[in-house]
Amino acid sequence: MPVLPRLSSFLLIGLLASAAQAADVPPQACLTKAEQRAAVASHKAISLAQAIKAPRQRARHGEVVRARLCHNGDKLYYVLTLLGRSGKVITATIDATSGEPVSAR
User: Fold this and answer.
1) Could you tell me if residue 71 is inside a domain?
2) Is residue 9 part of a domain?
3) Number of other residues whose CB lies within 10 A of the CB of residue 91
4) Number of domains in the chain
5) Which three-class secondary structure state does DSSP give residue 78?
């Protein structure tokens, strides 16, 4: 098989996988780093360290590989992407005001 069709097949698979992962997250707008710092400083959100503790203490999912502070309307929440010990990728949503888990997939 020529290299170009194989490369385009891999790119298509990657795009489909990222679109499927994005579909798992509710409609949202994620904050910039400056907006995140302001939300934590004004006590509208807990710190990222506190949000990371929540899923680890409850289920010991694994390592956090990505963390975003997002809002849906006036509600703030952390969307954490975790890599489990089994190699499975898990997305956990944590309420940014209370630290309570909202969902995990």
Assistant:
1) yes
2) no
3) 15
4) 1
5) strand
Q: Please tell me the distance from the alpha carbon of residue 52 to that of residue 64, in angstroms, as a whole number.
A: 8
In a domain? residue 5: no
User: Which residues is 77 bridged to in the sheet?
Assistant: 70, 95
Burial state string for 51-65 with b = 16 or more CB within 10 A and e = fewer than 16: bbebbeeeeebbebe
Distance, CA of 42 to CA of 58 (rounded, Å): 27
- Along the 105 residues of the chain, how does pLDDT read in single tens digits? 454 444 344 333 443 344 334 434 455 699 999 999 999 999 999 999 988 886 554 556 678 899 999 998 889 999 999 888 888 998 889 999 998 888 777
Q: Which residues of 93-105 are buried (b: 16+ CB within 10 A; e: fewer)?
A: bbbbeebebeeee
69 within a domain of the structure (yes/no): yes
The reply to whether the predicted model has a pTM over 0.70 is: no
Distance CA 80, CA 70 (A): 11
Domain that holds residue 49: 27-104
